[in-house]
Amino acid sequence: MTPFDITINAAVALLGIFALLSLASAVAFGLSARHPDRDYTELKQRIRTWWVIVILFALAIALPPIFAICLLGFVSFLAFKEYITLIPTRRADHRVLFWAYLTIPAQYYWAADGWYGMFIIFIPVYAFLLLPARMVLIGETEGFIRAAGTLHWGLMTTVFSLSHMAYLLALPAAGNPVAGGDGLLLYLLLLTQLNDVAQYVWGKTFGRHKVVPKVSPKKTVEGLAGGILTTALVGFLAGPYLTPLTPVEAAIAGLLIGCAGFIGDISVSAVKRDLGIKDSGNILPGHGGILDRVDSLTFTAPLFFHYVYYLHY
Amino acid sequence: MVRLLRLLFWILIGRPLVLVVLGLNVRNLKALPQNGPAIVVANHNSHLDTFVLMTLFPLAQLHRLRPVAAADYFLRNRALAWFTLNIVNMIPLDRKRLGKRGEDPLEDCVKALGAGEILLIYPEGTRGETEAIAKFKGGVARLKEQFPDVPVVPVFMHGLGRVLPKGEFTLVPVVVDVFVGEPVAWTGTRQAFTQALQAAVAALAAAAPDRTWR
User: In this complex, is the C-beta atom of A70 within 8 Å of any C-beta atom belonging to chain B?
Assistant: First the structure.
């Protein structure tokens, strides 16, 4: 008996991620050795932060699912807290915000319990109705719809969307004999984060035409297309080892994650631009805040979950 | 024993509460005094202000930190008095002695500065309205007059009025912005110094984002 609970394929995928990170560290080291005059501090910081994130996640995934579910719940808490910090809130809504926080442990409990019916309606229906109910009973009407709307948008993205990652771990193991829930979660995380990096690298190398200059001036058509195709290719290749998807389904999953990741990324950019800030926080050196890191996942996690759920569960 | 309990409280409860449940975003931390004696002056909106200020300092300085607070409020029952005097290591300020001839309510503060400790003072004298700064009282100027070499460092904290405002008991996690300013020099008179201090905190506040719908 070991405390570890992980399939061979998922373990190999984790090793692969560690190999990729080692490669990134080596490249950063090489770059700064070759160009001592340039400043690579941010790149190095970014990679160092990645090491911390990956080690934490690898541990949580290798242990029984409850560890990863708790870690993901904590990520939701940090993301929601950042969101609440950034948006203006009404003094009158103090207690409402308190109740909004309590939806996080509840939502992750439904996920851990595998109670799909509750998991899927708790925030879109119950929180959507009950939080404004609490608000209206307090009786402050000025800014009511703005307050109710911004609060619910935050819960939907940082709690409901992200909690789909946790539910991947609660899906019946028989649905994915090759790698279980761990495999699905790793596949989603790997493709989403790789997509971010690939879009950045393609854009940096070949980027000419801007996609959404008003929201995110650095995003280019070339970066977007190159990133999506790279993600689709990696999705196609990794699919059979980590998911129950057929090769064609896996390639489409890659395309889906590529497109949704881009939209998630620029949605959070739009929020930050609306609020007049650059980074959502400073908890992750080199990256910014938690929201800056999980922006793409707020879109890819629910879409990938429902894609797999519809096809194979 | 009390020192051990205090250390344990801050390691296991105080600091995790501030750093994990709330989260800090500190600007210019290096301006904070590294050693005593010193006076840190901050705006006051919440009981948690003291928790945040105490977390800004390294644990090695914990035994030197002395928040100054109203005796009539914090010593009103035995459990609270034990906690504030021993765990928070508070200096109780007897407001009844204020302005009385022959009485010095700052006696304990003077002693603490003499012993090389770091005073944490809220010159507004109360938590007041959420996210508003009231007029500063003159106690810090009296201390600075007696100890001209002791640095007085202004701090502005933003967000704690949203975390735990006056009159609320439910805590709402929000990341707290902390702005540390440069020490305020003695200006010649107590009144001018108090004004300079208030201006220093107001200048830090001007840099903070406004996130409240009113």
Answer: no
